[in-house]
Amino acid sequence: MFYPHQQTSHASTGGGASKHHDSNGDSGGNRLGSGGGGGGWARHPSHPSFTPSGMPLPSPGGYPALGSSGGGGAYPPPGAGGHGHHQHSNHVHLHGHNQHHPSFGGSSNLGGGLGGPGSSNHGPSYGGMSIFVGGGNNQQNSPPRGNEPSMPLTAFWQHQMLRAEASRLSSSPHHRARAAAISSRATNKPSAVTITDPNNRPASSQSIALNGIHRKQTSLSVTRADSDRGITPPPPSDPSSTPGAENADPANPAHPPAPNDKEEDKVSEPWTGLDLGGIRLKTLSTALFSFDHITSLYVNHNALTTIPSAISHLRQLTLLDATGNELNSIPPELGVLCKLKDLLLFDNNLTTLPFELGTLYQLETLGVEGNPLDERLKKIIADEGTSGIIHHMRDNCPPGPEPPERHWIEIEPDVSSPSSGKQESFTVLTYNILCHSFAPGTTYSYTPSWALEWGYRKQAILNEIAQASADIVCLQEIDCEQYADYFLPELRRHGYEGQHYPRSRARTMSADEQKAVDGCATFWKSDRFQLVEAQVVEFNQLAISKTDMRTEDMFNRVMSRDNIAVVAALEFKASGARLLVANSHIYWDHRYRDVKLVQIGMLMEELEKIVENFSRLPAKLSSDPEYNLGRGPPKYDRLLKGRDIPLIMCVDLNSLSGSAVYDYLSTGEIPPDHEDFMEHTYGTYTDKGLKHRLGLRSSCASFGEMRMTNFTPTFDAAIDYIFYAHKTMKVTSVLGDVDREYLDRTVGFPNTHFPSE
Description:
Deoxyribonuclease I, Chain A; 19% helix; 6-stranded mixed sheet
């Protein structure tokens, strides 16, 4: 039994926003989480019931009683106002589906254990939609349990009672689906009948709607028109309120750095809700959980004793109603359904709740009235509401099992092995540590408060760095105070030296204000490397100095972004070989992808100058004879202008592979009319394009990049990279991804095991 939750002819629209953002004037010091890997970024409202305003609830016989006045049935949480439909702007739909799901007719095997005698009489059936007729003898109202002590009638508990009563009135078979169908037929009548040639059907896969019924191949689905008030349509895309490409909320972690796919390429599902309520189900078939696009699931007023853990596959759920069953427990896997707004468990046999529900950070209603629940939990709900119980369970949930150890991926050499004796080898680690000023509890509300505390996170970050024991460590989003007071002293104990530069805004601040400004820090093992020179590349200062690029766009879009890069020229102590290490954090916002291109273009120009100057410095006088066949430190050809010096670039690019900035670093060229310039003007960059000759390649390019370097509830993808000069060195191995099974059990980072997202 299915019912529509939105029109199939209208797709949600929106754009992606960036991740790993800056604390400049645009973001107000907040941090944008990512959020989803791409696609449509629109929130679909949740509804406790599908009774249209202006129409009564269906009677047990299946139709509204004549003469009844409209009864809403949707109750807002305390403080939400007087109407029952709420707009939530931070919900997302991530992935489209290309297959058409069948309607649930007699052959579907989604629920088992239909009740015995006394079932309702069935009327005409339209595909999977059944209209129930007959008297009220088969009504399955489940009254509240009568043996529970009364709770104080606080505003929160009043909300519980109202929602419980609305759910109890929805006990007849397929109540919500029938209400939606009745409403659709009553309100979606065209003023004129369109006559079409039945032998000349359009080739398009789009449905043709008539009286609210859409025919798709051989199945039928009932949909609503915009005038259907039984199911409130998604709010219009208001640029001032809807998060999208043009007005991303930097304080919300639900936005990705860039869309993976174009919205128009996605196929909308014909239905997003499933009503299996009131039909005496005893078990739920695992086939049900293959429909991972549904946003609302009703299994209320059945005879279920358990909910399978496979429900965790329904990651798009915003509403789950399991009222009036015989549940003794609920699976902890419900905790990964972090888009849930309503979890209705009224009138069951629950005595406790799993702590894993604490990650349901968007939950607005947790319905538990009518259960013999632990009095302490009930009191929290009565006193503090749903958010109070969620925070209690989140902060008291014991840490789960640690993830399996990450494995190294062996890489075949991409250059021939030289025959000049012993060669230098080294390891590199790049890490955006999530500056503590970018991680308020309101942004990462799925993370236990104690795990989000900077004292806990900085110790966990230090432990990771020490355990990795990389020869070179590049950190982004590390502020001046934490570098000077914690990381540099602690890493010195592990044999490192380092260099840190803050963002350009620190130039105009007092000493105390500078402490909170983040930047980039590069560390190296002091027993292996000698620092020759370190310098900072300030993108807004470079923009000012480029007289041939002083366009309006350069002033208004680039100069106000104070991202930087730290460049360290190092020398191996044993062999005398040289190494240039660049460490950068590029602007986060996808709306400013032209700025990203300009920043990377200026950085590559500066690196070409720095590496050329590095090649002109005199070589060391001596070196270990095991290296270079005892001929002393290597010599560098000045005619190559430093391109024979090994170069490493660790960069938080805030962009996916295949983006313009990624392609520019990998190929060395971007045309002047590239779409990511967005028709803005940047002098020679948009007249002649971008070019560099450093010959860079991503360290993961041989196997197609990491699965992810950023993991939040609605976004996981690779946006951090290590590039290298592939003509002067080779990659031998790369640390593999975090175990996918662990990620499937996790809502997002930071968490108890991973201190940064």
